[in-house]
Hints:
Blueprint: H1 37-66, E1 73-76, E2 81-87, E3 91-97, E4 100-105, E5 109-111, H2 120-137
Amino acid sequence: MSLYFFQNVQPKQGTPGTTQEAPAGGAPAQQAPGGSMITMLLPFLILVPFLFMSFRRQKKEQQARKNLKKGDKVVTQAGLIGELVDIDERLAKVKIAPGTTVQVLASAVSSFEAQAPASKTDKELSDLKEAKATADKK
């Protein structure tokens, strides 16, 4: 497989400053083979999956944004967390403090789902309770 990206093109007859050797026997000069079609399309073939994933992510984000309603807890791309007051196609109004409402682009708003990680103490307590229950049965 050839990895040439450019064809080897000979200068035209009569180009000043170049000398061209005549092929033996009057046969026409052969050009070096150019890059294969796969080599030329390889960058585009690599980009296709990334574009597909990007479009899917954007579609999911738009769907999640459509599901937002007044009173939902939201976060902006800038990191502001507040309560959604109003949202339309372009702008969203977010209440970030009592008496303080900011307008942001609707595309910069997403649902804020504060998922507190399960603390080790909760797990340890449930394990201790389970161990005590099994010890009491013995």
